[in-house]
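Saturday, quiet lab. Running sequence design on the structure tokens for the scaffold JK sent over.
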């Protein structure tokens, strides 16, 4: 049914239209569909001026597919993640100078609420939080993996906090230490495609952030359910958890990036991520692993990287992580072994991974040291034309085995490798099969 618009209503609509056209920066009035650059700076001329996550998110929310968010130099204090809102965009900083740094974390016990499907929590110390802050929802039983929920605080009324996401557990707030923690990724994207992140340093500020968020739900840089996207020339450092994590993804490229000083894993493709390309990266001095292939990581190409000085392993391969190619990497000075195949039965092992032309050197500690340690019952693993060596002498020589195969039904082919300097054996198979 058509209704006639009153003359004063029509005039008002014209005035509103004129007002909307006239407000905002010039970049916001460019015709729809024409790529534009949205700028953020801490001072001077920019579309958005500020030095925290609120300013960054306000600028990001102006993006449309095809646009670029240009973040100027400086340290931006993060009380929540910068979340990329749309596909098909580039988020670019000034390499080494654009730093997104996580603010000091706070926590409070949940004293009521937080059952499965609830987004309302009565907390003991509501004064610690503010609207817009990022939080993790957890208890002692649900403190890791996908049991943790990350969310944004949407409202606070007295001692009651309302979040953007619902609990996926019945939280135990009687004796299970149910809590809200201001823990979140620093830079994140969810359900995106064709996104480029480049030239940004994401700093987890771990000295002021004692609450860990593992790579299933976060990381200094975090992608979830994303495709055909690139993380380039970025630094992920000092995060209480993982450096760069990408989960449930396809065709993610991580190139020329550095992961350093993170308490967990440096680089973490996981949860069925396929066709990852990891090249020219440096993952070092992380608490556990330089590169951790989690569950069902397949068809990846990992080339020209350096994985060194990580707490346990340079590269770790596990559950159904199959058909990946490792070529021209340097894997050295890691605490237990350069390469570790995690213990799995054959039916859920990671099969047919190829290591070619890598340098696997000088790994281990005073207690134990291996170039390659195969604890899994994997099939079709191939090591060819690699240098697997201990080049140091005396007490510094800790890589005592080149390739060590533990008891089990594993299948490893080693051909054309240069293996030397090991005090125990270049190749040792506990199954005593001849090779």
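Result came back. Writing it out in full:
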């Amino acid at each position: 049914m058509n209704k006639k618009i009153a003359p004063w209503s029509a005039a008002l609509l014209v005035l509103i239209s004129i007002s909307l056209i006239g407000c905002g920066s010039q970049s916001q009035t460019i015709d729809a569909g024409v790529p534009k650059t949205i700028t953020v700076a801490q001072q001077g001329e920019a579309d958005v001026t500020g030095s925290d996550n609120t300013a960054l998110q306000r600028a990001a929310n102006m993006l449309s597919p095809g646009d670029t968010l240009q973040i100027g130099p400086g340290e931006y204090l993060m009380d929540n993640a910068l979340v990329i809102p749309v596909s098909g965009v580039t988020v670019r900083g000034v390499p080494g100078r654009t730093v997104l740094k996580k603010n000091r974390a706070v926590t409070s016990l949940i004293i009521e609420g937080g059952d499965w499907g609830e987004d309302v929590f009565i907390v003991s110390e509501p004064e610690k939080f503010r609207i817009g802050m990022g939080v993790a929802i957890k208890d002692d039983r649900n403190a890791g993996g996908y049991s943790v929920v990350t969310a944004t605080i949407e409202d606070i009324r007295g001692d009651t906090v309302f979040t953007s996401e619902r609990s996926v557990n019945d939280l135990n707030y009687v004796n299970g230490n149910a809590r809200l923690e201001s823990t979140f990724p620093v830079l994140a994207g969810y359900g995106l495609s064709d996104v480029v992140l480049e030239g940004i340093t994401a700093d987890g500020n771990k000295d002021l952030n004692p609450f860990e968020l593992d790579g299933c739900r976060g990381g200094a840089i975090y992608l979830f359910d994303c495709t055909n996207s690139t993380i380039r020339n970025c630094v992920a450092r000092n995060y209480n958890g993982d450096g760069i994590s990408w989960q449930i993804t396809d065709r993610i490229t991580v190139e020329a990036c550095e992961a350093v000083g993170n308490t967990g894993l440096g680089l973490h493709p996981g949860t069925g991520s396929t066709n990852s390309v990891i090249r020219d990266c440096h993952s070092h001095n992380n608490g556990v692993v330089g590169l951790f292939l989690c569950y069902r990581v397949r068809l990846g190409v990992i080339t020209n990287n350096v994985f060194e000085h990580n707490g346990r392993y340079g590269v770790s391969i596990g559950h159904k992580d199959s058909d990946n190619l490792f070529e021209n990497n340097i894997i050295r000075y890691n605490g237990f072994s350069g390469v570790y195949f995690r213990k799995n039965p054959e039916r859920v092992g990671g099969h047919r991974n190829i290591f070619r032309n890598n340098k696997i050197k000088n790994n281990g500690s005073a207690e134990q040291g291996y170039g390659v340690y195969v604890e899994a019952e994997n099939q079709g693993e191939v090591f060819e034309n690699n240098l697997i060596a201990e080049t140091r002498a005396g007490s510094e020589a800790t890589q005592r085995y080149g390739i060590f195969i533990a008891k089990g039904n594993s299948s490893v082919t080693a051909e054309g490798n240069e293996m030397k300097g090991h005090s125990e054996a270049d190749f040792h198979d506990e199954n005593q099969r001849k090779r």
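Notes for JK: The helical segments are 7-22, 53-60. The CA atoms of residues 116 and 169 lie 4 Å apart. Ask whether to fix the surface positions before the next round.
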